[in-house]
């Protein structure tokens, strides 16, 4: 007998949902997308037809009232994450919420508590962490091949400054580069080092043309033992998507650290002394892997790889970075 699949509903027709997450769920071993909702009925119907989704709803409330849906994915603008995660939990739905999970750590804690009360799962949609390259990085570090870790460098930048109306350009909606892409290197450093930052110092370009959100930010997150993450992120700069882990004896480099090219091999390189080796990883759909981790936790009772507490801790680091950038001060966590 075929195992039952997790039945997903999608709250909204955001590009990330249509381009990546919905296809990922559809390619996963554990899930199927059964419904999608929009505040515009024609948008929901068109998206459902395009992606082969059986049911389209003209409101989020209608989707949450559907007893045939087990879990929802929330790709709404950042300022709506808390509201609709809590409403979904109260409707008995498990929730995969797009990053950043909330506008601050306090909101993230409220969301985690609401899901715990409702006895539903909550996860933050950081798909990159499910790619096997990151487990490989940890194995290389633990092997001692690159020596002791001295620092991490990360960058995630792109240029959408002329894209017109965009939720990322509104302060009240949780806009800005730190929320949109800075969260990736921050999360990656915490994941690789397996500890939390102690202080943050960030400098940012706040653009009057874009409601004074941070269109570029660069900073340092201090960790124990003299180790630091140096990072930059931008929505108004040439594209980069890289991570480097620097050790006393060598380094690990990921040229496509967070967003991989569709259907292409991924790789990382390890350099020790004058010797450099490429580690080729066959293409995998990291969105499908993310969906399967979530699906197994519900269908089989396996622990999530990343519990809601991790999302709260990541938001504490982001809060410190935003405070540092806005106030031009070093912030101790």
UniProtKB/TrEMBL annotation:
MF GO annotations: nucleotide binding; oxidoreductase activity
Coiled coil: none
Spans through the membrane: none
The keyword 4Fe-4S belongs to this UniProt entry's keyword annotation: no
The UniProt record lists the keyword Oxidoreductase: yes
Swiss-Prot/TrEMBL keywords: Oxidoreductase
Domain GFO/IDH/MocA-like oxidoreductase stretches: 134-253
Gfo/Idh/MocA-like oxidoreductase N-terminal domain ranges (all copies): 6-124
Signal peptide: none
Gene3D superfamilies membership: Dihydrodipicolinate Reductase, domain 2, NAD(P)-binding Rossmann-like Domain
Family: Belongs to the Gfo/Idh/MocA family.
Protein name: Gfo/Idh/MocA family oxidoreductase
Organism: Paenibacillus xerothermodurans
